[in-house]
Specification:
Radius of gyration: 50 Å
Number of strands: 32
Distance between the termini: 173 Å
Length: 464
């Protein structure tokens, strides 16, 4: 190298260490016409990229030998095993496993791991296979440069898109900055997760109705209908029933109110209407949604789904009409004769048959006979009543009045005529009060019986 006066030139020295460690040497410079040489000490450290990986969640290490896992293994040991497996042509062994908990559909979870540069030289890194991951997994960042002593946090997102078990493999590859020496370190990493769903099929009592329809029923009826819950998925599902309206809660009892449905198993649930027979009024419910079934994930106790159970019912009393409504008056009838029959009519206006029973007002038994009450100026008809012949079978004797039939079943929309005859005796005005009993009518509708008055006047021709 020739240098003119005040000239400066650079001397370039290249270092190519073949092994790791410190290498020292000197560059000797001899000057023309100067016996004293110049010495320039030089040194270089031979180093390889050094990387460490730390999972930021509890990790599971995989032992290829089948031994019991001993926790997170050192990267250098696992790397040797992976290289050995690769040399034999075997599938790469995952050095680290990122295991997600099972995840419900349409939910998202994330975990992370840290890549650290533990060496003295910077390096490049990349996650080979990250771009080929299914859409369920997303990794960011997936590559970069890392100076000595620094670290980077890599996030893995898992989105449950469809029901499936996933096990993917990515490889953390480490290269020198110039990429002159190729890949210096490969660390296989497994990413595993499961997307699942909870679902319960409900078999309702009626087809084409997502609930319980009791239809028409009498206020006094107590009816139970059954729901069948079937777990069609692979994990247990908890269920719980709630009734949001206090009035509906008094009408319906659900047994059991909560429980667990095992995979591919069924649970029967009874929905009982008016179980304690406490209903005292008519009720109409049409597609009521106050009953709600909640599905619960047992592992988290989270309420995942709410399913409304429709409820329809029409509880009703017996409805009727009586014509004439107030009673019958026979007017004057010659004594010692029997009047022509007169009738009153009872019509069933409801949806259920009912039984008509006629008794004397205040009588405890339907067959009890009561003599007629005398009008003003008349005598009580005790002896005369006792002398009256027995009424025909199926009829009722009330003093001087005979009613037939005394009992009948009337179907919906039908009508029943009741024939009444008056036997005139003496010169007296006779009267009696019948109690008409109609089964399953309103509890407040004349609970002692529907009052029906009968009257007639026995006349002696020419009498004063």
């Amino acid at each position: 190298m020739d240098l003119a006066i005040d000239e400066t030139q650079e001397l370039t020295v290249f270092a190519f260490p073949a092994t790791e460690g410190l290498f020292e040497d000197s560059v000797m410079c001899r000057l023309r016409d100067n016996p004293t040489p110049l010495e320039f000490p030089i040194s270089v450290v031979g180093a390889k990229p050094s990387v460490a990986v730390k999972l930021n969640v509890p990790a599971v290490s995989h032992e290829p030998s089948g031994k019991t896992p001993t926790g997170l293994r050192r990267a250098t040991d696992a790397g040797t095993a992976a290289k050995g497996a690769a040399a034999k042509g075997a599938k790469p062994v995952a050095e680290y496993i990122m295991q997600f908990d099972r995840l419900l559909l349409n939910r998202k979870d994330s975990q992370s791991f840290t890549v650290s540069n533990t060496g003295v030289v910077p390096f490049k890194w990349q996650l080979a296979g990250a771009t080929q991951l299914p859409p369920d997994f997303k990794v960011y960042p997936s590559s970069g440069e890392l100076p000595a002593g620094k670290h980077v946090c890599v996030t893995v997102e898992f989105t449950a898109i469809k029901k499936q078990e996933l096990s993917e493999l990515v490889t953390l590859e480490v290269l020198d900055i110039q990429e002159a020496l190729g890949i210096s370190r490969s660390i296989p990493m497994a990413i595993r997760g499961e997307a699942y769903d909870i679902h319960v099929d409900i078999k309702f009592p009626q087809e084409n109705f997502a609930g319980v329809d009791y239809g028409p029923l009498r206020v006094v009826d107590s009816v139970a209908k059954q729901l069948v819950l079937k777990n069609t998925e692979k994990y247990d599902v908890k269920f719980s029933f709630a009734i949001r309206n206090e009035t509906v809660k008094q009408l319906v009892q659900i047994t059991p109110e909560s429980g667990v449905v095992l995979p591919n198993k069924e649970v029967q649930v009874m929905v009982h209407w008016n179980k304690d027979l406490s209903l005292r009024q008519e009720v109409i419910l049409v597609n009521n949604t106050d009953i709600v079934m909640t599905l619960i994930e047992p592992s988290t106790d989270n309420k995942e789904q709410q399913v409304p159970i429709k409820l329809s019912a029409h509880a009703q009393f017996s409805h009727y009409a009586i014509t004439p409504a107030r009673g019958l008056h026979f007017g004057p009838v010659t004594y010692n004769t029997v009047s022509k029959p007169r009738t009153f009519e009872v019509v069933n206006l409801g949806n259920f048959p009912f039984t008509l029973r006629i008794t004397a007002m205040g009588a405890e038994k339907p067959t009890e006979e009561v003599v007629g009450k005398a009008g003003k100026g008349s005598k009580t008809a005790g002896k005369r009543g006792s002398a009256t012949p027995e009424p025909p079978a199926g009829s009722l004797q009330l003093g001087q009045f005979t009613l037939e039939p005394a009992e009948a079943v009337i179907k919906p929309g039908a009508r029943q005529e009741v024939s009444v005859v008056f036997k005139a005796e003496g010169n007296i005005c006779w009267s009696a009060v019948a109690a008409l009993g109609i089964t399953e009518r309103d509890f407040r509708d004349q609970p002692e019986g529907i009052r029906y008055e009968l009257a007639g006047e026995s006349c002696i021709p020419g009498g004063q």
